[in-house]
């Protein structure tokens, strides 16, 4: 029976968990969250998210992440999402994102008085593909009637490559 050297044991100890973890990845491509200054999201403050797309044959799922405390005044949030593609084409889409319902309360994961939402922008049963490879820029703007929008901690963008 062969005895493993110390360096081989260390290598196996480091590589085996890494291989196991990589096999369990969700296919995340991009995720960035920004902190809202003083927990007051002013309409003039528009977080920008820039990322690279290489695979235009894959389907993607886009999410907005939104974190607030329990003093947030609304059961939804209206946002504009501005896009700039690698070929400099601009786009704009408006979304009403549900945050709570009368039946269930906050539609989020929560701890203590902090709630975090991950809300799909593309319907889960639809495919979304980026048309061109290259750098994309997305800008998120809150368009609520309250300005500044109080009790907002963070907002973000998450883009996942769908598994085939």
Task: Explain how this protein is built.
Helices cover 11% and strands 48% of the residues. By secondary structure, it is mainly β. The protein has one domain: Jelly Rolls (Sandwich), CATH 2.60.120. Strands 1-13-4-10-9 form a five-stranded antiparallel sheet, with no helix packed on it. The protein has a four-stranded antiparallel sheet with strand order 3-11-5-6, with no helix packed on it. Residues 7-27 have low confidence and may be disordered.
- Tell me the domain tally: 1
List the strand order in the largest sheet: 1-13-4-10-9
Overall outline: globular
Distance between the termini: 43 Å
Biggest sheet descriptor: 5 strands, antiparallel
Can you identify the CATH class? Mainly Beta
- Provide the structure class: mainly beta
Low-confidence stretches: 7-27
Q: From the 3D coordinates, which CATH architecture would you assign?
A: Sandwich
What key phrases describe this protein's structure?
single chain; 164 residues; mainly beta; Jelly Rolls; four-stranded antiparallel beta sheet; 1 helix
Fold blueprint:
Blueprint: H1 6-23, E1 28-35, E2 40-41, E3 48-53, E4 60-69, E5 76-84, E6 90-98, E7 100-101, E8 105-106, E9 109-111, E10 114-120, E11 134-142, E12 149-150, E13 152-161
Antiparallel strand pairs: 1-13, 2-12, 3-11, 4-10, 4-13, 5-6, 5-11, 7-8, 9-10
Short structural description:
With 164 residues, the protein is mainly beta.
């Amino acid at each position: 029976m062969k005895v493993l050297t110390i360096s081989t044991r260390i290598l196996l100890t480091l590589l085996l968990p890494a291989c196991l973890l990589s096999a369990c990845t969700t296919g995340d491509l991009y995720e960035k969250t920004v902190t809202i200054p003083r927990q007051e999201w002013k309409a003039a403050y528009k977080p920008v998210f820039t990322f690279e797309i290489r695979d235009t044959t894959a389907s993607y799922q886009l999410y907005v992440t939104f974190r607030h405390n329990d003093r947030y005044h609304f059961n939804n949030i209206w946002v504009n999402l501005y896009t700039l593609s690698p070929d400099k084409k601009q786009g704009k889409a408006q979304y009403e994102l549900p945050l709570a319902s009368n039946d269930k309360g906050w539609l989020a994961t929560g701890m203590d008085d902090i709630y975090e939402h991950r809300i799909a922008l593309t319907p889960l049963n639809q495919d979304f593909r980026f048309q061109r490879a290259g750098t994309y820029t997305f800008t998120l703007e809150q368009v609520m009637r309250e300005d500044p929008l109080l009790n907002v901690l963070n907002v973000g963008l998450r883009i996942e490559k769908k598994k085939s």
